[in-house]
UniProtKB/TrEMBL annotation:
UniProt protein name: diphosphomevalonate decarboxylase
Source lineage: Bacteria, Bacillati, Bacillota, Bacilli, Bacillales
Encoding gene (name): mvaD
Pfam families listed in its UniProt record: MDD_C, MVD-like_N
Species the sequence originates in: Caldifermentibacillus hisashii
Homology family: Belongs to the diphosphomevalonate decarboxylase family.
Primary enzyme class: lyase
Length: 332
């Protein structure tokens, strides 16, 4: 009863921000992302009848009580569905900067969902797997698929109609995403807490809800046309609106650092020079810069000149979750 899965992170072009149900992780709005090829998590789950509790190892070290409890609570839902009361050893290797806005939870819970359900004997349809991944981390439901993916918010109270669906294969619309690291420290306000505070206290949040579905419709149209300019404009606008909602929360908070602003300004300056590039950010200080593959070296070179930039990772649309053969986890 052992399986290993590999899942990649994704970057939301239309953001998921706010939940209508905290326990089932049901979003207030639909969202759309692109799965990235560079960042990923490899997770092995082994159920064992001799265990009396779940054990979680992250990057080779035994995880603390809080992280272990969260993984154990997640596995409880899988055990209940499979009608098997077995504990597991979970070993996860995160090839993603954790808790800095690079979506480590997306790849983490997508890999965990795939490995755990396979190990316990479930053979799920990708749509079902997406729903299980959502229970761990909302954005994880999108990492089940490669390429461009929509998470449909659904309307049912039980969450049965809230799952991700593929929009375009990773080879259908070649773009480049330069992930610009300006900070490696753990966020002061984690995404879950930030969402909750914003939904409950920000007067700007209703404006977000009033416009985000229109942004989604426009971006899907841009994908149909393979219109990079339209895609970039919508993604940048949508990211700025999401981050604006946090400034109205009580107490206010923000994820940007001064280095974040420097990268954003550099991207806008590139456009004035005729280099087409756009920025987006999830709930963290690091910036993702969208451009066409033929411009990625020029964009990379300009971003590299910013003193506050620590590292730049060049990404492209990547694959969905995969089950790895036994032993391949060590290779990854």
């Amino acid at each position: 009863m052992k399986a290993t899965a590999k899942a990649h992170t994704n970057i939301a072009l239309i953001k998921y921000w706010g939940k209508r149900d905290e326990s089932l992780i049901l979003p207030m709005n639909s969202s759309l992302s692109v799965t990235l090829d560079t960042f990923y998590t490899v997770t092995t789950v082994e159920f064992n009848e001799k265990l009396t509790e779940d054990v979680f190892f992250l990057n080779g070290e035994k995880a603390d009580h809080t992280d272990t409890e969260r993984v154990s609570n997640y596995l409880r839902a899988i055990r209940k569905f499979a009608k098997k009361h077995l504990f597991a050893v979970v070993r996860s290797e995160n090839h993603v900067p954790t808790a800095a806005g690079f979506a480590s939870s997306a790849s983490g819970y997508a890999a965990l969902a795939a490995a755990a359900t396979k190990a316990i004997g479930l053979n799920l349809h990708p749509q079902e797997l997406s729903q299980f991944a959502r229970l761990g981390s909302g954005s994880a439901c999108r990492s089940i698929y490669g390429g461009f993916v929509e998470w449909q918010k659904g309307v049912k109270e039980d969450g049965s109609d809230s799952f991700a669906v593929p929009i375009l294969h990773e080879d259908d619309f070649p773009i480049a995403v330069l992930s610009v690291m300006v900070a490696t420290n753990r966020k002061k306000v984690l995404s879950r807490a930030g969402m909750k505070r914003t939904v409950e206290t920000s007067p700007f949040y209703q404006g977000w809800l009033d416009t985000v579905e229109h942004d989604l419709s426009e971006l899907k149209h841009a994908l149909e046309l393979r219109d990079f300019t339209l895609l970039g404009e919508i993604a940048e606008r949508n990211a700025l609106k999401m981050h604006a909602t946090t400034l109205g929360a009580n107490p206010p908070f923000y994820y940007w650092q001064s280095a974040t602003m420097e990268v954003m300004e550099a991207v806008q300056n590139m456009r004035s020079q005729g280099i087409e590039a756009y920025f987006t950010m999830d709930a963290g200080p690091n910036v993702k810069v969208l451009c066409l593959p033929e411009d990625e070296q020029k964009v990379y070179d300009q971003l590299k000149q910013i003193p506050s930039v620590k590292k730049i990772f060049t990404c492209h649309p990547g694959p969905g979750v995969t089950i790895l053969p036994t032993g391949e986890a060590d290779v990854c």
